[in-house]
Amino acid sequence: MIVGNRKDFSEILEKLGAARRVLLLGCNECVTVCGVGGEREVGVLASELRLYWTKEGETFEVREHTLERQCDYEYIDQIRGFADDYDVILSMACGAGVQYVAEAYKTKLVLPAVNTTFLGVTIEQGMWSERCQGCGACILDMTGGICPIARCAKSLLNGPCGGSSEGKCEIDKETDCAWQLIVDRLKESGQMERYEEILPVKDWRTGRDGGPRRRVREDLKL
Amino acid sequence: MRLSYPGNVKVVKVPCTGRVDVLLILRAFESGVDGVYLAGCLEGECHFLRGNLRARRRVEYVKGLLEEVGLGGNRVEMFNMSASQGQRFAQFAQEMTERIRLLGPSPVKKGE
User: What whole-number distance in Å separates Cα of residue B54 and Cα of residue B92?
Assistant: First the structure.
């Protein structure tokens, strides 16, 4: 899923500026699961805004609304009837959602309430961890199902660096050395011969270095 | 025991403090209360195992939120006591009331 962190309340207030009619827009997908921008978090931020503005003696209106997704226009269209009643749409979706809402409502001020951070998994309730950087050329078959691009601090492709110590990365003691994990996993699964194969220099054009990416499937088009 | 505690304390019954969500506490503040405290069972003695421990973490989280919005984290607290410790219940009610009196009325208090 896409994981994010909510922005500090002070930063959100600063971005809102003089806007007092706020449509606070949540998303039912990834940001709900990682506890940052679903219906519940929309409720919490709306409550914070109401408490703050009431304390300040301001007149305001905060509408809470959570869409099934903010990355599909069919859902974004559902707020068309009332979006214009508000000064600003404060989106709690990932960066993709914020942008798609902004594209759909060209005259509206659309602000992000969340910093989108990574593609990851749930380690346990309340803890998430990065697993993928969307490089566009997956090599997980070669690396025991553990991604050195996302999980090695240096994205090394052929074994660990000198900063690997007792299975941990030198960046901090909580971070596993991805290459230690890969070697352990290759051993456990009897695939150590994979480690002998040299992975060539990565062609980053399939990733972000190739510019914004687009995917088309003609057969799915209407 | 015929113990008395301050009459300003309104008791909201929940099956376990683990039922108390962040939003429940925030809504109480939105309705104009001056402070909220949770009276949970003693730690390690939760009938539902971790309800009171979860409640304590949520209270800590709400403290941060209240600081952010300028109400002050001291307006919310978690206390632990067993069902047989009526004395402690009254004592915490007194303590919390005194703390909130010092802080003054909530700045989001609704007009009379």
Answer: 20
